[in-house]
């Protein structure tokens, strides 16, 4: 069945929007929350953008999702304990 999972999504473009992520991940499960974090260097230039996404998704759909974004994003499941 579908379980709420928290995912780390790395390798995002610096201009990515919450709506974009919700739309992309919404194809695989229902997105509960998306939080985008951008790390900047001393000059204020973005160096790394990643997100934490909470999504109701089955393991099978998570596999599909990871496979689908294989080339663009780095997706890892965050253990919830």
Automatic annotation (TrEMBL):
A single GO cellular-component term on record: nucleolus
InterPro entries according to UniProt: Nucleotide-bd_a/b_plait_sf, RBD_domain_sf, RRM_dom
Keywords, comma-separated and alphabetical: RNA-binding
GO aspect biological process, one term: protein localization to nucleolus
Highest taxon in the source lineage: Eukaryota
Entry-linked Pfam families: RRM_1
GO MF annotation: an example: RNA binding
RRM domain segment(s): 5-56
Keyword set includes RNA-binding: yes
Keyword 4Fe-4S: no
Protein name: RRM domain-containing protein
Organism phylogeny: Eukaryota, Metazoa, Chordata, Craniata, Vertebrata
